[in-house]
Amino acid sequence: MLIFEKSRAGRQCSLFPPCDVELKTLPEGDRRKTELHLPELSETELSRHYTELSKKSRGVNDGFYPLGSCTMKYNPKVNDDMAGLEGFADIHPLQPESTVQGAMEVIQTIEKLLCEITGMDRLTVQPAAGAHGEFTGLMLIKAYHESRNDFKRDKIIIPDAAHGTNPASATMAGYKVVTIPSNERGLVDMEKLKAVLGDDVAGLMLTNPNTVGLFDDNILEITKLIHDCGGLNYYDGANLNAVMGVVRPGDMGFDVIHLNLHKTFSTPHGGGGPGSGVVGCKKLLADFLPSVLVEGEQDKHFVKPVKSIGDMKAFYGNFLVVVRALTYILTLGKEGIPEACKNAVLNANYMRYKLKDLYTMAYDEVCMHEFVMSLQDLKDKTGVSAMDIAKSLLDNGMHPPTMYFPLIVHEALMIEPTETESKETLDQAIEVFRKLYKEAEKNPEALHNAPVTTPVGRLDEVKAAREPVLRYQWT
């Protein structure tokens, strides 16, 4: 039931103290013509309503959440404690620089540490999310080429297994997207890549390990080919959790990178934000970074790069997200960062190995942080689809993995357990997957009807997407 439906005229809760300043009214022309519709409830009813809603939600705090490609890892509470400190939470972006030296040190420190982790030279914290970071990185590439009067480069090469935001970001930046297919191993098809190279290539967008969870063993040759034709290499940092502290994108030959702090570095993820898609780059692109950067030691100050592409967001990005990410990095330290990475890889391979005798692995080899199963065989044999399995997982206390992505795998389920899950949790999840497979063989109709224990049953997702109800209609 919506909170508006629980409303009863005259009920209220006193959440605000009496006003202690003179009241001012708006001019007649600026006032509402009708009363503002707000729900009227007591404080008890209000508290119960939102507590009830929280129980209907499913997140990493109440169960296994193996959402592939999204790195839904646990967010340590110490991160929130640090972000809640008065010196961080109660400052204003227009304060004089002399009064926010500590906050500026946060930005300066995370730039230094993330550059060390990624192999980049400079970094901006302005972009607000991953796709925003992609767009920022592409604008850096564009500014670089145009600064050299090289206007003929109008193509960005993107593998067919890329994140969907990659081609969208490239298009927004004014580029033509050239898609190259994956080979039979799920990696970049080298011959197809070579066939599209030329002096009109602005760059390549790639994540490594890629979207099917595999590290491309041709990565050095790939980035060299792009450089040899005059292009630049962009690293989509969505999968950095699989390699952080072990191998650096900058050493692979990448020139610019965005990082999803809300994925790899354990800050809140989902629900529309706030996120952070910080962007790092090599020296050749540093002069084009968005304003502003922090420089100085004792007397820190903001500077704007000489050829800056301008502001990508107001002020200094989602600062408290940056505080949380820095807390995570400092907590783990130089030893903990690669350990987390290795455990993520270990967990993914453990699950893959324990399921491969039943489920068809799209690419049956050692993976990195995630693996992709194809349920096409199961669907052909029993009629049970990847959607049916995913919905049935909800009845077993587990959030479904990513479905039907990447598009190059039919009936795909992409599973990323992350490093924060215990062996016991993984074993329970493995048992559920195995149980559902056998149930599909014996009683497929039961899976077609799932979920049956959730607040609502199987929804008409096509209708929900095409005919969404986005506002409450007052009667």
TrEMBL record:
GO terms for molecular function: glycine binding; glycine dehydrogenase (decarboxylating) activity; pyridoxal phosphate binding. Residues 340-442 form the Glycine dehydrogenase C-terminal domain. Its EC number is 1.4.4.2. Residues 27-300 form the Glycine cleavage system P-protein N-terminal domain. One of its GO terms (cellular component) is cytosol. GO terms for biological process: glycine decarboxylation via glycine cleavage system. Its cofactor is pyridoxal 5'-phosphate. CDD domains: GDC-P. It is an enzyme of class 1 (oxidoreductase). PANTHER family: GLYCINE DEHYDROGENASE (DECARBOXYLATING), MITOCHONDRIAL, GLYCINE DEHYDROGENASE, DECARBOXYLATING. This is Probable glycine dehydrogenase (decarboxylating) subunit 2.
